[in-house]
Amino acid sequence: MFPNLLSSLALIACGIVLSIQLIAAQTNEPANDWKSAPSNQGGKEYPQVNSEGRVKFRIVAPKAESVGVSFRDSSPFTKGADGAWIGYTRPLDEGFHYYTLNIDGAEVPDPNSLFFYGAGRWGSAVEIPARDRDFYALKNVPHGQLREIWYFSESSNTNRHAFVYTPPEYDKSRKRYPALYLQHGAGEDETGWGQQGHAGWILDNLLAEEKTRPFIIVMEFGGNPFAGGPRPTNSPPAATSGTGTNNAAAPGRPRFNFNFSAFEHVLVDDLIPYIDANFRTIADQPHRAMAGLSMGGMQTRTITLAHLDKFSHIGVFSGGSIGLTNITDMPAFKKKAKLVFVSYGSKENGAAAAKANVQALKEAGINSVYYESPDTAHEWQSWRRSLHEFAPLLFRN
Amino acid sequence: MFPNLLSSLALIACGIVLSIQLIAAQTNEPANDWKSAPSNQGGKEYPQVNSEGRVKFRIVAPKAESVGVSFRDSSPFTKGADGAWIGYTRPLDEGFHYYTLNIDGAEVPDPNSLFFYGAGRWGSAVEIPARDRDFYALKNVPHGQLREIWYFSESSNTNRHAFVYTPPEYDKSRKRYPALYLQHGAGEDETGWGQQGHAGWILDNLLAEEKTRPFIIVMEFGGNPFAGGPRPTNSPPAATSGTGTNNAAAPGRPRFNFNFSAFEHVLVDDLIPYIDANFRTIADQPHRAMAGLSMGGMQTRTITLAHLDKFSHIGVFSGGSIGLTNITDMPAFKKKAKLVFVSYGSKENGAAAAKANVQALKEAGINSVYYESPDTAHEWQSWRRSLHEFAPLLFRN
After folding, report:
1. What's the half-sphere exposure (Cβ side, CA atoms, 13 Å) at B297?
2. Is A138 in contact with B150 (Cβ distance < 8 A)?
3. Could you say which of A394, B38, B372, B373 has the lowest number of CB atoms within 10 Å?
4. Nearest C-alpha of chain A: how many angstroms from B342?
5. Is residue B232 within 8 Å of residue B117, measured between CB atoms?
6. Lowest mean pLDDT among A269-278, B23-32, B368-377
7. Which residues of chain B does A171 touch, with a Cβ-Cβ cutoff of 8 Å?
8. pLDDT: is B228 or B99 the higher one?
9. What are the tens digits of pLDDT across the range A311-320?
């Protein structure tokens, strides 16, 4: 009886909290300056975003009993006489957010939004226009190309899929270029940096302002850490599908497989040789960088530390950092690592520890840079900004 | 009273027809050899396809009252104890079909399928594996690149988006190549040929078998003919949004705007010069082709006939044909048009008339070829096959 009483009390408490939240949501009427989101499908009026960063949805579902969205603390959706349900979110951070609709228990994409690969699926996302969006805007400047390539990987015996950004001058020049290998996060794939990351426009704009040296960017599928879960579309079986250490996870939550050795082989044994043979790279360690976000940052740390003969510039975005204890041979590291760049969103856990590690590397004489994205969490706005800060520091020495 | 009686009789007749169809569907149990469709998102078990070409859907929607799919004559969806709805289609033609789910009146994409741009939106589609799918399969052969490009169009004052396929040898050679300008259909966009059309793999495979000459393919957005309707994603405003002749259409049906002059300007004044300046093309009339499917075929006819100084090879897939009456100056046409290729799916209206027109052109001394895709309608399997037949005939003379 006693545990049941406790449960009941807890439920009542939850009810009170929920009621307070609902009252707050209802009394704080959203600002009425809604504009269609830039992440909408062409011609679609909804979702809309207002100056508070709230998102308003309109979903035609005349026979539905309930409609909702995966953003926590959203207003209850209400149905109008036209059969369309309207609901809106709390104010969201600037930038890009994945979401899913729920229509009578069915988790479905919003037919109004563009679709992106993330959170382990192709689905909806919404863009809250950020104050600094100019640096990744499409402008009338010379544009590089985002090239979809297929190549055969001996180490995994599969046809593999990647994207390569080549700078605007690439086809007209006969020069060779440095290369950055740039990785996505867990539940994302090789499309992430080119689509929601806007890596191409970030580089095009930096180059137009002469703020970076031209280099190529290679974006491959780094594997799916959701053991037994879905793998990305149009992609070969996950590179990490071999044996590995599964992180402990609560029942019902995804289990992560953060063994990167299969991807390490693909990258080092297949992809880099393919890129060096098929693109005009400067195929040496001083002109090769690796960076990644979240899981891609962890991969970057693991793989660059194991292959300092291959990589000179290292970028870890929201994916931990490199501490003194990670470096087994400091004189060798000092000689080979020309840059260690670490970044976090200011709202993320881990920012303080990463900053301290960067400071320790600096004191040890390593060219190390810490960047913190203001007012963002573990999301793409942090990583767009990180690439924008990282690129100008590359291949300077 | 009398019209009402007629209506009632008609409704009863419809009911009888519907009942017969339902009985037929119920008594003809589908073959139980379901396999996950190749168009599914990675790791998704459903939709499944059986040997009859039926598609079986499984949609988790525990609180829904009704679930359906846009394929006509599908079985009624039924809900299992697990909250998942199961339903299946009639046998469909081989190849690629767009569809939409309906959950309690909401038209939404299937969260299990990959998403494609067609029918005026990004949404679901399913692939029924075709007997001849080998010609557009991903193989371990040298692959060309599908390059996403952005360029500024003076004639439309917009940043425009296109895709360019370059053959496998392109980057390693210093040769120049012919170019094919290849257009999508109405309600589709510049992504169609590269994604659902598999244009790249078709060319890669033909080249590996030495069945075609290498050439580049340029795929641009040819405009959205749905006047006032949606326009494709990531694209500039529709090139055809200017004044034009709206085809008469029944109320409630989309009105088409088939004035191609804005796109004609973009293509001739902006895109071709950009491609010739930025890719290693053989920039002359004998080495430039244009083709398209459906609306893209109509554009091809209109634009090539108006610009025979620019195009020598013409392909019209499921988009009408070129009749003797379309040609105002036969000696000039004979001199300049090196190939007129016309194709249809065997299930399409228009096939017979097109075949007769091709025969008339042949008799007038024009190198004209008719191709009919067996057992397909106005869909991508007809157009994949058409490209596969058309490519080997290009730039031979």
Report:
1. 20
2. yes
3. B38
4. 30
5. yes
6. B23-32
7. 278-279
8. B99
9. 999 999 999 9
